[in-house]
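note to self: dont lose this again. the chain is below, predicted strucutre after it. 196 aa total, dont forget to put it in the shared folder this time
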Amino acid sequence: MQEVRVESLEGLERRGGRVLLSANAGSLSIVFPEEVWERATADDAPGRGPTPEELAELDDIRARLERHATENSFRTVLKNVRHAGEDSAPGYDLVLEPSGLLASTTGYLFAPVVGRELVGRVAAGLGEGAAVEQAYLIGAVADDAALASGTETLKALSVRGRRCGGSRFEMPPELWQVLSRGLGWRDVETFVHREE
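---
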C-alpha cells in the first residue's frame, strides 16, 4: 500500500460520474467514483441535506411503486392515508396490499429526510388492530439513528448510499422489484447498529 501525505488541497471537480481532487500544488490527482465519494463524505457531514438527484429518485420510487401496484392488480392501493384519531402520527403516502393469501398491508411514507423522531412518530401509529401491518419510511436521506431504530414491522430506507434497516430479503416484494428492476439497484447496504 502506498501512502501519500496531502499538504494542500487545490480543487475538487465533479465530471462524468467522478470526483477529482487536486492536491499538493497539483502534483497529486485523486479520482473517486461519485458513489464512493458520496459514501465517504456522508458520515463526515450527517446534516447535509438531500441533493436534487436524490429527491428525484425518491419521487421516482414513489411513482413506480404506485404504478407497479396498479398494473399488478393489488387488492389495496390507497394514497395519502391519515391515521384516525392519532394527530402526532404522520400518514402514509401509499398503502399497498398485494392480492394473495398471505399478503401483508404495507404503509409507505416518503420524506426528504428520515430521522429517529419520524420513525418514533410512525411507530406510535403502528399499533395492534391497525390496517397497516408494516411500514417503510423511505427518505432521500436517512440517518443512522433512523436506520437503527426500526423494528420487525417498521424499517427505514435511504436513497443516499442505498442503505436500509433490513436486508432486501426482508422487504416487501413490490418494493424490491421496483428498486431492482425499475431503478437498477443491485442490493441495499443493510445497516447494522454497533454498540460502542
